[in-house]
Amino acid sequence: xxxxxxxxxxxxxxxxxxxxxxxxxxxxxxxxxxxxxxxxxxxxxxxxxxxxxxxxxxxxxxxxxxxxxxxxxxxxxxxxxxxxxxxxxxxxxxxxxxxxxxxxxxxxxxxxxxxxxxxxxxxxxxxxxxxxxxxxxxxxxxxxxxxxxxxxxxxxxxxxxxxxxxxxxxxxxxxxxxxxxxxxxxxxxxxxxxxxxxxxxxxxxxxxxxxxxxxxxxxxxxxxxxxxxxxxxxxxxxxxxxxxxxxxxxxxxxxxxxxxxxxxxxxxxxxxxxxxxxxxxxxxxxxxxxxxxxxxxxxxxxxxxxxxxxxxxxxxxxxxxxxxxxxxxxxxxxxxxxxx
Length: 340
Description:
340 residues, alpha+beta, 434 Repressor (Amino-terminal Domain), Beta-Lactamase, 2 domains, 5-stranded antiparallel sheet, 14 helices, Cro/C1-type_HTH, XRE family transcriptional regulator, MLTR_LBD
């Protein structure tokens, strides 16, 4: 902040994400924080091809094999004779206890009739995390997982959940949905992140905001970590919902508009991160270090509650108190109230 209390950098809500081709540039009508907004009517995006599950399986296995060194798994390293990074297929097959031909077919995207035991053995050989193991299973054995027909209608947040958000005084909180969509939020979330009600529903999406809005890049001091977490989440989601046309459209849009997204998407990293600490530089109250917790709703697997909080007595706790006392209107205006 400068000496007058005005922001040194634009507030996140002051800069929209880059509009998609054919999308109106005028934001929709704002809605009260804490309530899901009625959908605006932007131009419908062009139909997107679903993600190719076989290609995803092939590329995921190749990328996990390439990151392992022989010494990581107790094999001798004949580095000068290696033409590609990582383990050879023969070495991986030996570690997993399967034939080279069998593993080769799997790495070519043919997961038909592969058993759970073989997938477990390959996961152990590749040193996969729990999230990566689940992702491999989703890609190779989709029929083992319940498929639900996805509705193209906007998701709605239950009234009781919206009311719960409003009771969380002093705690930034929001309800997230599929593909990192932002469905509902409270007054403190609007004060911290900006009033998402001023954006069209399609732009209320963390991936779009993170990669296409310069102001959100400024907001997160560790933007690289935020961006990596976001892409890892989308990869996990893609493994479960490869036929989701909105996901395909989102990935296509971000791949065209963001070099950073393309680079991270190509790594095939998957990670499930439900808690941690985010460091931010708010345009009015300065730097904050806020812990967050993600709580999945048991009766709706596609919605989750995210809450941010500061360590009691810390400068970040005082900053949140100031945001709460100033109110959303003052924060939206981008100026702190003058003290007498």
